[in-house]
């Protein structure tokens, strides 16, 4: 890393010489504007809108537009007379609890390295800050601008976080904030359950920039002269209206399944309200068919059950007839007149 600033941290009568390094770097892939036909770089000239001539850096000043086509021009001498904090000092103003600094105020981060013989007071300030669980509120002048910042400890190194001024943070002004919206307790309980089921420890290394990786693959393929074929993804159209409770329940079950936990109940996937009625009708239709199917089966079972009984009754009737037949014949024989010689 290359130091971008040298100065001193000053608090009380203690002064600690430090070097400033950028603590972060953007990994975004950058492109140049080129001519599509031959790949030539597109260059821009600094020209004056009044005379049309090209202007060198030495002839460029800063102008403030006051409206109505009028411009106030400021020179280096104008900036030199401003009451700017020393450009080589980080002045500690106070020490405050870290949780009192809203993260929205943080802007850029810089590492501080002790310079020369300042290592011991540097380590002393670092350890004292770590033990106090506070951050130092400081003022520093970087790039001709006075900035508010914090000093805190990260991985054994003092970290300077420049901050926005309070009047640089916008106030949210949205219509829904004036509406009297009520959240039902069951919905709030289910949302809290979803948060609990997705709770975890933040591990930054677990997340990757998939877009940048895919873009780099395209660039590498073009360098190597091969084609990249990406699978076509079909995006499902989002439902216009969703049952909030059903969606929350399904989300909880999905989060539990992702963690390998047993589902707490048979929660269904979130279903649009417009299709819920169709689903109910579809559920009723098979039930009706099943009932109709069950009725003939019941009749067949009853008929089958009655068939042996019917056969048994017919058999008994036949036996009775067979038993009556000899008795009838005997009676007829007895009643017949005897022949005389």
Model description:
- 37% of the residues lie in helices and 21% in strands.
- It is an alpha+beta fold.
- Among the domains are: 5-28 and 86-168, Ku70, Chain: A, Domain 2, CATH 2.40.290; 182-198 and 240-277, no CATH class.
- Strands 1-2-6-9-8-7-5 form a seven-stranded mixed beta barrel. Strands 3-4 form a two-stranded antiparallel sheet.
- Helix 3 packs parallel to helix 5 (244-258).
- The radius of gyration is 45 Å and the shape is extended.
- 8% of the residues are buried.
- Mean pLDDT is 77; it is low at 266-306.
Task: Reconstruct the topology from this structure.
Layout lengths: L4 E7 L2 E9 L39 E6 L2 E5 L1 H5 L8 E9 L8 E9 L4 H14 L1 E9 L2 E10 L2 E7 L21 H13 L12 H15 L19 H15 L14 H63 L6
Parallel strand pairs: 1-5
Antiparallel strand pairs: 1-2, 2-6, 3-4, 5-7, 6-9, 7-8, 8-9
Largest sheet: number of strands, sense, barrel closure: 7 strands, mixed, barrel
Q: Major sheet: order of its strands?
A: 1-2-6-9-8-7-5
Residue runs with pLDDT of under 50 for 5 or more positions: 266-306
Share of helical residues: 25-40%
Query: Over the alpha carbons, how many angstroms does the gyration radius reach?
Result: 45 Å
Assign the CATH topology of the domain at 5-28 and 86-168. Answer: Ku70, Chain: A, Domain 2
**β-strand number:** 9
How many helical elements? 6
Mean pLDDT level: 77
Q: In the CATH hierarchy, what is the class of the domain at 5-28 and 86-168?
A: Mainly Beta
């Amino acid at each position: 890393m290359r130091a971008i600033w040298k100065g001193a941290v000053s608090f009380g009568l203690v002064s600690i010489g430090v070097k400033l390094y950028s603590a972060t770097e953007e990994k975004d892939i950058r492109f140049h504007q080129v001519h599509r036909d031959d790949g030539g770089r597109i260059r821009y000239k600094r020209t004056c809108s009044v005379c049309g001539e090209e202007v060198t850096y030495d002839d460029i000043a800063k102008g403030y537009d006051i409206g109505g086509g009028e411009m106030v021009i400021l020179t280096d001498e104008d900036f030199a007379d401003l009451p700017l904090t020393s450009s080589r000092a980080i002045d500690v103003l106070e020490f405050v609890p870290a949780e009192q600094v809203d993260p929205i105020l943080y802007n850029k981060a810089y590492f501080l390295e002790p310079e020369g013989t300042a290592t011991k007071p540097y380590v002393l300030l670092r350890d004292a800050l770590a033990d106090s669980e506070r951050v130092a509120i400081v003022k520093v002048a970087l790039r001709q601008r006075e900035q508010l910042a914090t000093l805190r400890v990260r991985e054994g190194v003092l970290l300077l976080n420049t901050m926005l001024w309070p009047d640089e943070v916008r106030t949210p002004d949205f219509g829904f904030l004036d509406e009297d919206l009520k959240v039902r307790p069951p919905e709030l309980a289910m949302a809290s359950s979803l948060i609990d089921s997705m709770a975890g420890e933040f591990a930054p290394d677990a997340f990757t920039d998939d877009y940048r990786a895919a873009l780099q693959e395209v660039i590498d393929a073009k360098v190597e002269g091969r084609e990249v074929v990406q699978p076509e993804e079909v995006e499902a159209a989002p439902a216009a209206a969703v049952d909030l409770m059903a969606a929350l329940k399904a989300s909880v079950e999905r989060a539990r399944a992702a963690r390998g936990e047993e589902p707490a109940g048979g929660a269904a996937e979130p279903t649009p309200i417009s299709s819920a009625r169709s689903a109910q009708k579809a559920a009723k239709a098979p039930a009706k068919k099943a009932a109709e199917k069950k009725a003939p089966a019941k009749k067949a079972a009853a008929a089958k059950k009655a068939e042996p009984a019917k056969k048994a009754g017919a058999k008994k009737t036949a036996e009775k007839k067979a038993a009556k037949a000899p008795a009838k014949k005997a009676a007829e024989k007895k009643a017949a007149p005897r022949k005389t010689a």
